[in-house]
């Protein structure tokens, strides 16, 4: 989600009339000066120190200035992350001042897969989606799969689906990293190590490959509910065939992707699947779970496998690890006809949707934007 917030911040930063707000420790929304946001977005910024300064400013005031902005004709208040989305009182005050509320919903995974998240996250997710149903004048979504899940949940709660835009996310990972030179064939999995990402099944597939298994590089921090996978990693049972990298910078990630035989994503649920488009854009094949949202993102290019079948994963990984692999060559041929989504197209669709909302033209049915749309001369942000 951090990538999405950054992309939206950069977009709004160059739009006339765009303003930024944040939430203080008391849950109140307040105005953040544009120069402070620009400093936060600058390369090499001390984000932690700048964030502390912004928090102090928010605690000292800023609510009145934000209410003034909300009262301007055509004002739209958007929360791009899920943080603060449950603060219905604060949202309602901005709406009462005149702003339309258009949040982004990335997924409802804590509701659909409660076993994959902590109790507090489940509770917050319910509160956030209720806020969408009660307060939103429109909603931004990034996949048809999430649109369908959100609508079904809202209807089950007796709430109407707001007018919605489905606009695929763009790509911002720099594809300039140097491939890992001279390394034996390896595969890469880019995902937080948590239950939903299904590392346990992937490690079982690696165990089945035996002593001749290729290298597996895991990029992602350790998190909730992956006890079995973590125990297997810590046991050393897989030897040096599995390497845990933790965090990687964008440049490091681009380099690791560039040299990989394939990206592996055995996830049980996703809101979009950013690693899939990052890998395909880098010219790297993808082996991923056969779930609707990943088919939506990857189309006919990746190999789709059941997330509960380690034998199938072992067989496909072995096929892709072969020198001059026919299976890998076939996917590379499919990849030649694939075009990545771009932020320009995403934001053109968002601008048009918000303009329709302001003009009262937005319908209740979801719009789908798979290609760039012409931008408007005026911007609702």
N-C termini distance: 20 Å
Number of domains: 2
Number of DSSP helical runs: 16
Strand order of the largest sheet: 5-6-7-14
Low-confidence spans: 369-381
**Helical residues, percent:** 40-55%
User: Whole-number average pLDDT?
Assistant: 88
Please outline the major beta sheet: 4 strands, parallel
The outline comes out as elongated
Q: List SSEs in N-to-C order.
A: HEEHHHEHEEHHEHEEHEHEHEHEHEHHHE
The number of distinct β-strands equals 14
* Main structural class: alpha/beta
Rg for CA atoms: 22 Å
Strand content: 5-15%
Describe what this molecule looks like in 3D.
- The chain is of the alpha/beta class and 381 residues long.
- The chain folds into two domains: 2-170 and 342-368, no CATH class; 186-335, Rossmann fold.
- The chain has helices spanning 2-13, 34-41, 47-60, 63-70, 88-97, 109-112, 119-135, 144-156, 199-209, 227-235, 250-258, 274-281, 292-298, 310-321, 326-335, 343-359; strands at 20-23, 29-32, 76-77, 100-101, 104-105, 139-141, 164-166, 186-190, 215-219, 242-246, 263-265, 286-289, 303-305, 367-368.
- The protein has a four-stranded parallel β-sheet, with helices on both faces. It has a three-stranded parallel β-sheet with strand order 8-9-10, covered by helices on one side. A three-stranded parallel β-sheet has the order 11-12-13, sandwiched between helices.
- Strand 6, helix 8 (144-156) and strand 7 (164-166) form a beta-alpha-beta unit.
- Helix 4 packs across helix 5 and helix 9 packs parallel to helix 10.
């Amino acid at each position: 989600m951090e990538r999405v917030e950054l992309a939206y911040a950069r977009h709004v930063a160059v739009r006339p009339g765009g303003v930024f707000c944040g939430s203080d420790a008391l849950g109140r929304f307040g105005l953040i000066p544009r120069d402070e946001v620009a400093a936060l977005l600058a390369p090499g910024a001390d984000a932690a120190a700048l964030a502390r300064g912004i928090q102090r400013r928010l605690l000292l005031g800023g609510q009145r200035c934000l209410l003034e902005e909300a009262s301007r004709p055509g004002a739209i208040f958007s929360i791009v992350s899920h943080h603060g989305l449950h603060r219905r009182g604060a949202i309602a005050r901005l709406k009462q001042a005149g702003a339309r509320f258009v949040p982004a919903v990335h997924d409802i995974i804590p509701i659909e897969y409660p076993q994959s998240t902590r109790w507090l996250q489940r509770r917050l997710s319910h509160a956030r989606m209720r806020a969408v149903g009660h307060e939103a004048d429109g909603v931004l979504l990034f996949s048809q799969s999430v649109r369908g899940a959100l609508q079904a949940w809202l209807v089950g709660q007796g709430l109407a689906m707001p007018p919605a835009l489905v606009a695929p996310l763009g790509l911002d990972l720099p594809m300039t990293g140097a491939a890992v030179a001279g390394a034996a064939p390896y595969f890469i999995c880019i995902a937080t190590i948590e239950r939903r990402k299904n590392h346990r099944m992937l490690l079982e597939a690696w165990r089945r490959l035996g002593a001749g298994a290729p290298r597996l590089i895991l990029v992602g921090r350790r998190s909730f509910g992956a006890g079995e996978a973590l125990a297997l990693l810590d046991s050393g049972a897989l030897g040096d065939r599995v390497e845990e990298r933790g965090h990687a910078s964008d440049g490091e990630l681009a380099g690791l992707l560039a040299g990989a035989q394939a990206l592996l994503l055995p996830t049980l649920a996703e809101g979009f699947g950013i690693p899939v488009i990052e890998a395909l854009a880098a010219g790297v094949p993808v082996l991923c779970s056969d779930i609707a949202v990943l088919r939506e993102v990857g189309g006919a290019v990746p190999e789709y496998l059941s997330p509960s079948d380690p034998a199938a994963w072992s067989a496909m990984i072995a096929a892709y690890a072969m020198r001059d692999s026919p299976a890998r060559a076939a996917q590379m041929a499919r990849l030649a006809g694939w075009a990545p989504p771009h932020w320009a197209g995403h934001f053109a669709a968002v601008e048009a949707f918000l303009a329709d909302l302001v003009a009262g033209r937005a319908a209740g049915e979801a719009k789908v934007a798979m290609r760039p749309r012409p931008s408007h001369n005026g911007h609702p942000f």
